[in-house]
Design brief:
alpha/beta; 23% strand; 6-stranded mixed beta sheet; 2 domains; Lyase, Ornithine Decarboxylase, Chain A, domain 1; TIM Barrel; 9-stranded parallel beta sheet; single chain
């Protein structure tokens, strides 16, 4: 038995989640966002599984991610690079038929230079407009000027990104949609992309021609509340030792937990060196079967201690306890640590063994 923590990657769940999200879209295609190693689930294997099941539009953050993905899914799909073109990467974009997303005037000039020097890109380019995020994106006020500047070299896609899609009642959602509608008037024949995973739940007015499913693929975000959505991975680790501690004793570094009664403690091979957050100290939990076992004391680099008193005979050395999965909800665990599901899955390190199912 390996003493390493392990993540079972449920490729069938991820594919079915994509199909479920896609089924909720009216007249819109459903792209997938696989940046950050497919949110920690494995870019190559997840990309292959989705492509083999019909997905034709992919988003990554960097050119090198696009290169890796292209090598595994073949020549036909469209791969957008969200962070945009860098002057030093023209070869990668051309060799691997990547589609740069242009976010600024400087990136637009880089694109123009590429086109003037070596001709059109095989898969074209996209324009990203900022409509309220104040992050990456071209100013909406430049839409008219850019529609003229790109005449004859039209973008293949125009996109924007929702800032508050996880809060359906937030006024900024409608405000961003209205701003994007104005931008659409300058590009009447170009497909638009607006909705991220949570944005697909805001209604038809946000779907447009291409939605972008990210965290929802892996059972996170608001999609975690939808019937049929399943976790993309199960994270578990073995119990290394059991210890019966007395009332009044303390647990872990800094003695942050003082026991109020006799407690059966399991020391588990999981820590922040594996990507499980130290912020879950004294707040997070693990599951043994259906028994919730609170984390007590600090999460350390390699080890976490949990209270298994209620688990009784189920708590044994060698038993694997679940930190994320069908019994340990991703977003609930993240909330316990004061973060979001994205951070838990993308933070898993190479020490966690990946098992693809």
């Amino acid at each position: 038995m390996s003493l390493r923590p392990r993540a079972h990657i449920h490729l069938d769940h991820i594919v079915e989640n994509w199909k479920t999200i896609r089924s909720g879209l009216n007249n819109s295609q459903c792209a997938v966002v696989l940046k950050a190693d497919a949110y920690g689930h494995g870019l190559e294997r997840v990309g292959e599984a989705l492509h083999n099941n019909g997905c034709q539009h992919f988003f990554v953050a960097y050119g090198f991610e696009g290169e890796i993905l292209r090598k595994h899914i073949g020549p036909h799909a469209v791969i957008y690079v969200l962070n945009g073109p860098d002057r030093a990467e023209e070869r990668i974009y051309r060799q691997y038929a990547l589609t740069p997303v242009v976010n600024s005037s400087q990136q637009f000039q880089t694109l123009v230079d590429w086109l003037q020097t070596n001709g059109k890109l095989e898969r074209g380019y996209a324009l990203n407009f900022d409509t309220g995020m104040n992050r990456l994106g071209l100013p909406g006020d430049d839409a008219a000027q850019l529609s003229e500047a790109t005449r004859g070299l039209d973008p293949d896609l125009i996109m924007s990104h929702l800032a508050c899609a996880d809060d359906r009642r937030h006024d900024l959602n409608a405000a961003q949609r209205d701003r994007l509608t104005t931008i659409q008037s300058f590009f009447p024949d170009i497909p638009f992309s607006f909705a991220n995973s949570d944005g697909t739940l805001l209604g038809d007015g946000f779907h447009l021609q291409l939605a972008r499913a990210g965290i929802g693929l892996f059972g996170g975000g608001q999609h975690a509340l939808k019937p049929g959505i399943k976790p993309g991975l199960t994270l578990e680790a073995p119990v290394l030792q059991l210890r019966l501690a007395k009332a009044g004793e303390t647990v872990g570094y800094g003695a942050t937990q003082t026991l109020t009664k006799e407690t059966l403690i399991a020391t588990v091979a999981m820590g922040y060196g594996d990507g499980f957050p130290r912020a879950a100290s004294n707040t997070g939990f693990a599951m043994i079967d259906d028994i919730r076992c609170p984390i007590i004391g600090r999460v350390s680099m390699d080890l976490t201690t949990i209270d298994v008193t209620q688990a009784g005979h189920l708590a044994r050395t060698g038993v694997f306890v679940q930190f994320l999965g069908d019994r340990a909800d991703l977003e609930e665990q993240a909330a316990c640590a004061g973060t979001i599901g994205y951070e838990l899955t993308t933070g898993l390190t190479s020490r966690v063994e990946r098992l693809y199912e």
